[in-house]
Amino acid sequence: MAPSRHPFAIRDFRYYWTARLASTIAQMSMVIVIGWQVYDIARRTMDTHEAALQLGLIGLVQFVPLFLLTLVTGWTADRIDRRVIARAAIGLELICAAILGWLAWAGTTTLADLFAVAGLLGVARAFAGPALGALAPNLVPREILPRAIAMSSIAWQSGAIAGPALGGYLYAWAPHMPYAVSGGLCLISLICMFMIRPIERTEIDRTRNPWQQMVDGLHYVRQNRLVLGAISLDLFAVLLGGATAMLPVFARDILHAGPEGLGHLRAAPAIGATLTAILFSYRPLKHDVGVKMLVAVGVFGGATIGFGLSRWMPLSLACLALLGAADMLSVYVRQSLIQLHTPNEMRGRVGAASTLFISASNELGEAESGFLAALIGPVTAVIAGGIGAVAITLLWARIFPELRLARSFDVPKKAGEAPIINASDEARELKT
Question: Which residue in 235, 250, 247 sits closest to 297, CA to CA?
């Protein structure tokens, strides 16, 4: 019997997709509200630059657990049932939402509370990322693996952009509401994860030293230039072009829009990303995927520059919508290339490395933006970051020709058996 052409026809994948979307919306909703609360509380006793520095520190606090636990989380995702890891991580996120919701409802939230819970949330995200990312390919036949990976990436990216928008709107309604809704979404995600049936365990060489097994993922990323180029491009481009980290500053002190305006600003990238995701669900990319990813990252940097220059809300929203659309295209291609080019027994460890790079770009990007804004001002920091993202794109197109020459997605007969990327003869010569 021929396999279904769409992953949503598969019961377990539907539960997985719903769980990933719900948990990502919850995570990112909490992250943006934590940032707003940190900035709002800090501004009561600090000037704009000092408060922006607090935004940088909260990003750093969320990144440290991911940095310290990367090797462990990847190894566990390849050695332990990925469903169990995801359930535990989502459960911890539910606890974080409950704590912050209670504090916000009681009106007793302090900077210390926010920093402490942000650290716990970083631990949860460190384990959830590799486990959920590596789980999708285990739920569908390999014939439809590219579309399943694309749909999984769409769930993550849609949630990553829609979550902060939802959090901004709910916080404008009541400070405890975003945490209450995030807790409900975590509960839905947890139920869906329990509905997924047992999966085939990965075959990992259990005779080798666990430490050697942990670092295998980093060695694989370093040796595979296509994977290394795709991951590192996101790291440096988003690290520099971190306009979203400064949205609380723009909403309050530059566009003078308040928390409701923050919701509008966060909704704009969500709209751009969602429209792009819908387009890909009907018309997946088939040709010149590497070039299109590079162009998308360049557009991301340009839109960041436009947002930094704008003082008119409609123009700011348009730049953010374009930014979200470009980011979705980049994520769609990058995650598909990484997952398809990685053997199943390595997906957890490579996924952990990818999560570290993504988190470095997001959380360290927030820290970089906060520190730079404290030195030269938020507007100049955003514009400089956008210019840096464009420069990185041009540089990566030159030093990683494998990205430029990646033509299309393909599926090998066995995972890890044959090259996944159909490239030109020139690209094959480069690899040899």
Answer: 235
